[in-house]
Amino acid sequence: METTKGFVSFVGAGPGDTGLVTEKGIQCLKKADIILYDRLANPRLLRNAKDSCEFIYCGKLPERHTMRQEKINKLLVQHASKGCYVVRLKGGDPSVFGRVGEEAEELAANHIAFEIVPGITSSIAAAAYAGIPVTHRDYSTSLTLRTGHTCKSNAALHGDGQLLGDTIAYYMGMKKMLVNCRELINQGKPADTKVAIIQWGTLGKQKVAEGTLETIQAIIEKGHIESPAMMIIGDVVELRKKLIWFDKKKFSGRRILIAKASGNPFAMEDYFTELGAEAYSFPIWKRKIYSFTKEELKVIMHANRLTFTNASSVDILFRQYTQAHYDIRDLPRNIEYQTEQTKKALEARGIMANKAEISDASSIVIGSQSDICPEKEAYSTHEWLADKRFDEINKRMLMEEDWETVIFPNKAAVTSFIKELKKLDVHHLLDIQFAYIGESVKEYAMEHGFSVIDEAVQSELKRMNWRD
Q: Fewer CB atoms inside 10 A, N or C side of the chain?
């Protein structure tokens, strides 16, 4: 793939679950200079982008477009013409009702190179997560994918009717659901044909409603099922009774925020997501690395004892020693660590360090700006800054979901959570129920207005399985 002269990758983001995107898609995101992303593309995927990458939101809602298609086409041409590597991130598969043909045609007309990276299409994935295989030897030997709404330019394509395939999947069909159901009945489909509506398929906020062509409209209105949702029609829907699996997860349907004060891995988010929750880490951080002078490196090298507070600081310091052509075998014999991750980072470099203890012995502390005590002799390797590129994403995520609980791993996370909520003008989450790690964190959170503990989440945290 040649990207130096301007190139566009149309990348399928998959149906929502971040584990259902291709490895090639992730590699494209890591290299991108510009990412234009849709509403249905999981914004968590943007965390793979490099720090210099620009995000452009092209979200579309029913009857309300954040950005018109003509504008999107123009931006793709504009940025690629400047020599940028552009990723157009689309929910599901870009070639299945993703308008990739129109956008690619615009690039071809302007002699801009591009590629199409397929993704798992939403109908098949959402049905699978709902316990519905779209084909089955005893129920269905064919599958038809249809758009739930037509426009003047493609109305003629429906001349053969809609009754094609044992299983029929409708995309974007919520607005015209009743019309489509009636049309299928008029064309001979029995009124008692099974129907499943799957909202936000493959995510922790997934909701499924079941009915028939005749009853489904009333059922979704009662259950408040809205767009985005897939409609699956056919006898295979009956299999959900036997094959339901995703809905059985321990925290299925729960909405949990994880407060963060640094850019450490998203282990806790991954853990609760695996348990079926809609989990989201907030805020997102990026790292600003400090460079040491040769004099500072010498001082550290000749210390009696070194204490590392985190694994990132180990990586940064050792990298700078290598760049300065120092021999790390000249480091002090007495090296200590404060966390298990730090211990592992040191062991990876052949250093068997000791657990840091409270002592009067002199030591130089190496860590991030936020975890260094001013009264100790210390050197900061980096600091974590809130990534402003995610402000728009975070505000949309926080406002559009009914978040139930926030997890505070440490005191700094309480502080950063409150600060970023106020910055984004999202005040309704300032008294959300919470869970915590450590009694001191609990007390600190309560001092700052959080009063109700989520006992179910708290009990899960005490099991300590999230640390594995």
A: C
Instruction: Classify 339 as helix, strand or coil.
Output: coil
Does the annotation mark 249 as catalytic?
A: no
Angle of the 100-109 helix axis to the 69-81 helix axis, nearest 10: 40
Which residue in the block uniquely carries the two structure tokens 């997860």?
249
**pLDDT at residue number 459:** 96
pLDDT at 182: 92
DSSP 3-state assignment of 46?
helix
Of 60, 189, 249, 423, the active-site residue reads 60
Look at residue 277 and give its three-state secondary structure.
coil
Catalytic residue from among 33, 90, 93, 172: 172
* Contact (CB, 8 A) for 287 and 384: yes
Q: Quick one: residue 405, left, alpha or beta (phi over 0 = left, psi -120 to 50 = alpha)? A: beta
Running DSSP on this structure, what letter comes out for residue 453?
Answer: B
pLDDT at position 362: 79
Average pLDDT for the chain: 91
What is the residue type of 321?
Answer: Y
Helical pair 411-423 and 391-400, crossing angle rounded to 10 deg: 90
- Number of Cβ within 10 Å of residue 306's Cβ equals 24
Six-digit token string for 370: 């936020």
Q: Say whether the peptide bond before residue 265 is cis (omega within 30 degrees of 0).
A: no
Q: Which of the following is catalytic: 17, 33, 38, 93? A: 38
Question: Which residue, among 74, 78, 102, 106, has the nearest Cα to 90 in the 3D structure?
Answer: 102
> Does residue 268 have an active-site annotation?
no
Confidence of residue 62 (pLDDT cuts 50, 70, 90): low
The verdict on whether 411 is a catalytic residue reads no
Q: Which segments of 206-323 does DSSP mark as H helices, in order?
A: 216-223, 240-243, 267-274, 294-301, 311-323
CA distances from 203 to 41, 254, 462 (A): 12, 11, 25
Q: Which of 205-219, 361-375, 441-455 has the lowest mean pLDDT?
A: 361-375
**SS3 state of residue 201:** coil
pLDDT digits 0-9 by tens, 290-314: 999 999 999 998 888 899 999 999 9
The single residue listed with the structure tokens 């450590």 is 438
* pLDDT digits 0-9 by tens, 73-109: 999 999 999 999 999 999 999 999 989 999 999 999 9
Per-residue tokens: 138 = 């005893």
- Tell me the DSSP string of 227-257: SSEEEEESGGGGGHHHH--GGGSTTTT-EEE
Those residues with Cβ within 8 angstroms of residue 364's Cβ, 6 or more apart along the chain or in another chain: 299, 300, 303, 305, 306, 307, 377, 378, 379
Q: pTM for the complete prediction?
A: 0.89
Query: What token pair was written down for 420?
Result: 């970023």
